[in-house]
Design goal:
By secondary structure, the chain is of the alpha/beta class. Helices cover 47% and strands 12% of the residues. Strand 4, helix 5 and strand 5 form a beta-alpha-beta unit. The relative contact order is 0.14. The N terminus is likely disordered.
């Protein structure tokens, strides 16, 4: 039910978008119940589609299934298998301007030159994206040697990438929420996320937020997580608590409660 504010180029696209919005409004106003993934979406549905608040329920998306089933004893094995660096940020996201990889590269450069701290970034990006463009972008900030790109990661290995990371760096401009944040919280990986959409609601008190246009702020937060072990441990423990709200039994109960409210 997310209502995009993006500009649609071309008359034909504009007509298609208008049809989509009209049909969605009709569906929303005639639905018995509407389920959304966050508080922001609830407000948007109320405002855009003129739906009453009592007809809208929040069911958080929750992390991927692999989060709940993995072998933590394989951490060193996975580090060795993929030759993971000692200190790295993790960002599993496809490569596009909306995912804002540039700001992370810029922040790594700031850490290198202003903080004398060498931090790597490990990326998981589908193979259809142009790696050459990504490396070219990292070269702009002279940090290409610190960029490690992986294609498909099997479910049994993916959780260990989170477990071994200094933190998840979710620099995306897109929201309202992002799946990797739930995954990181559930896996004990500290979260630094852009302050867009409902990501502040998603991380709660378990993560640090930054302006996605401010590389200096991002660099400062990364350094803070790197240098303050007590803060890191606090973020990990708080993340575990936050992730309890999206465990499968909890989400199932929310869904059952929604069904039982239908008269």
């Amino acid at each position: 039910w997310f209502m995009s504010d993006r500009k649609i180029p071309g008359a034909s696209n504009l007509i298609g978008e208008l049809k989509r919005r009209i049909s969605t409004k009709i569906l929303a106003q005639n639905a018995i119940k509407i389920i959304v993934e966050s508080n922001l979406l609830k407000k948007q549905v109320m405002e855009v589609y003129s739906v009453k608040e009592e007809n809208i329920y929040i069911l958080p998306t929750g992390p991927s299934d692999f989060v709940w089933y993995y072998n933590s004893r394989r951490l060193e094995e996975v580090k060795k298998k993929y030759k993971l660096p000692e200190n790295y940020l993790f960002y599993p996201a496809h490569f596009s301007p909306f995912k804002n990889h540039e700001r992370i590269f810029e922040a790594i450069g700031i850490l290198k030159y202003n903080y004398n701290l060498l931090i790597d970034i490990v990326l998981s990006i589908p193979s259809e994206y142009n790696y050459e463009d990504l490396i070219s972008l990292s070269e702009r900030y002279n940090v290409s040697d610190f960029v490690h790109v992986f294609n498909y990661l099997p479910n049994e290995d993916m959780p260990l990438f989170y477990k071994g990371a200094l933190c998840l760096c979710m620099a995306s401009y897109l929201g309202p929420t992002n799946m990797p944040i739930w995954e990181a919280l559930a896996l004990g990986c500290p979260v630094i996320a852009s302050d867009i959409g409902d990501q502040a609601w998603q991380v709660g008190n378990s993560g640090l937020l930054f302006n996605p246009d401010d590389a200096e702020q991002l660099a400062h937060l990364i350094y803070k997580v790197y240098s303050d072990k007590k803060l890191r441990n606090k973020m990990v423990q708080s993340g575990y608590e936050r992730a309890k709200s999206v465990r499968p039994p909890v989400r199932a109960k929310i869904l059952l409660d929604i069904f039982s409210s239908i008269k």
